[in-house]
């Protein structure tokens, strides 16, 4: 980490903060704004990563797919899923410069969810983000955010990205 | 096998069109199911052979709530046994998938060692240490194997049973179910991954769900919005041996009359043209079967669903964990000879299914909603009358006939 400037680390931390706040506030437009125009997103179980298997819970492999994810959450599934409240807790555990203007970062995450009807809070999943982040003019964007969950068995169902 | 207690038997007015809620909320019923269904004459999905490809490969899973390990022996045969050491009852295998290079499965507690068949091969200190201790002289390792599970390999799929009189697998499935099973498993498969979800509902709510073509266009709004599946499509529902079923549909085959009826009902199911995908490649699949069928939900009682939805192929294994919880394990596959293009289509389309699936996430929700409401009132019944009262299929998808078949078969096997 020592080779990276404080500004770079701050930009990465700010991007992650914007991301988790957007999801905790169910602000899907804010979520989308964290990705670059070349951005993509994967949410995958650790057991598949470990076994070299490609299946993901969510595989949004282009920006248009990310836009469709927003439409799905905001407009399409609005009546049919329970709107649970998420709270993300993250910690930056590694950050390295890959090439000029691109860094790789890893964050641990733990995510709780509270059901709107019962108000019970449980753990949704625990794992790590493996990110490729581009930096332009001091602003960081996800080129790729990969959420790898150690919790291979998820509770109920997952209606929103994590 | 024990006799079903009188107080559990269904009220006279109950039957396959009206099922008492006690089947979902009674601990006694759950215990009886484990005995009569899961330890009875039924076949259970254990693995695709592609999951245990090498000599020594194993996978740990369950039959009902009993832990079971399926292995490939050094003789290349497939075996299965209850994952419980014959010594003091500890779990022998502690990994979900793996490979035992030397073919030995040793319990960590006292290192009793078994082979892939489940036969006991070694007992540490059997003859004691320096003349002290040891097992009695008449201790016979042959008498202390793991509890064996009878297996059959059908179309590259391993099924297991505890029953002594379980019929031949094809006879068990029935003609149409076996046909569709063979159709989807017609060539070697490649495992693409697994996902799991833990749902707080009785396992049979999920069984009902997979026999219910009527809910799909009403609950799964992605389906309806983008025309993947609507109840107005050409399709059929088929019942085999009461509790097994197939429902199939072809997308792009809607009749104008049916669409008009749906518009008149102002169902939220019909939102044609309101939304468009910015990335249409999600649904731009390949027609890989000559028959034009784009959706097959094959339900093999009690624990397997085999599915084709567009280009997604998967086994769904239903594992009961108590009267009000079950785990749903999705094992996704393609075919070994898939082109890279088709493989990528599958990987992307898997967004549609699984715990976060665009057209399957709501099943977790509906299952829990049912469980939440039936905690009491075991003698009250539901209403299962869409498309009549018979436990039969039909040449359309606006039916609950398959669910009636489930309950007809269930009542028989449970002697309720």
Give the topology.
The complex is a heterodimer of chains A (162) and B (416).
Chain A: H1 6-24, H2 28-32, E1 35-45, H3 46-50, E2 58-60, H4 63-76, E3 85-99, E4 102-114, E5 121-136, E6 139-149, E7 153-155
Parallel strand pairs in A: 1-6
Antiparallel strand pairs in A: 1-2, 3-4, 4-5, 5-6
Chain B: H1 22-25, H2 27-38, E1 44-48, E2 57-63, E3 66-72, E4 78-82, E5 97-99, E6 105-106, E7 113-114, E8 120-122, E9 148-154, E10 157-161, H3 169-173, H4 175-184, E11 189-199, H5 203-209, H6 213-219, H7 221-225, E12 234-240, E13 244-250, H8 256-264, E14 295-300, E15 304-309, E16 312-320, E17 326-335, H9 340-349, H10 361-373, H11 401-414
Q: What can you see in these coordinates?
A:
The complex is a heterodimer of chains A (162) and B (416). The longest helix of chain A has 19 residues, at 6-24. Chain A has a single domain (6-149), classed as Nuclear Transport Factor 2, Chain: A, CATH 3.10.450. The two termini of chain A are 26 Å apart. In chain A, a hairpin with a 2-residue loop joins β3 and β4 (102-114). Chain A has helices at residues 6-24, 28-32, 46-50, 63-76; strands spanning 35-45, 58-60, 85-99, 102-114, 121-136, 139-149, 153-155. Chain A is globular, with a radius of gyration of 16 Å. Chain A is an alpha+beta fold. Chain B has eleven helices and 17 strands. A seven-stranded antiparallel beta sheet of chain B has the order 1-10-9-4-3-2-5, with no helix packed on it. In chain B, strands 11-17-16-15-14-13-12 form a seven-stranded antiparallel beta sheet, with helices on both faces. In chain B, a hairpin with a 3-residue loop joins β12 (234-240) and β13. Chain B is an alpha+beta fold. Chain B folds into two domains: 44-153, Rieske Iron-sulfur Protein (3-layer Sandwich), CATH 2.102.10; 174-414, Naphthalene 1,2-dioxygenase Alpha Subunit, Chain A, domain 1 (Alpha-Beta Complex), CATH 3.90.380.10. Classes of the chains: A alpha+beta (162), B alpha+beta (416). Chain A binds chain B through residues 43, 45, 47-48, 51, 53-62, 64-65, 67-68, 71-72, 75-77, 79-82, 152-159, and chain B through 96-97, 191-200, 219-222, 225, 268, 275, 277-279, 282, 327, 332, 347-348, 350-351, 354-356, 358, 360-365, 368.
